[in-house]
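Entry: Histone-lysine N-methyltransferase SETMAR
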Amino acid sequence: MVTELLNEYEWSVLEHQRYSPDLAPCVYGLFLKMKEHLHGHRFKSEEDMNFAMKEAIRRLDKDSYVSAFDSW
């Protein structure tokens, strides 16, 4: 699906190193908050995991986003 969207909108993919600390330091605080919500859960499928990730993101409050970018 992602590849189809990239082709449809003629977007290019930028190459970068995986797990690079240079990617987006401001987001690390958000990942920690998401991990709190997901800690200890096992998922039966990738779809279940994606749904749980989206729910974790929805549960983050505005202050979480602001503090993540302020700390950067």
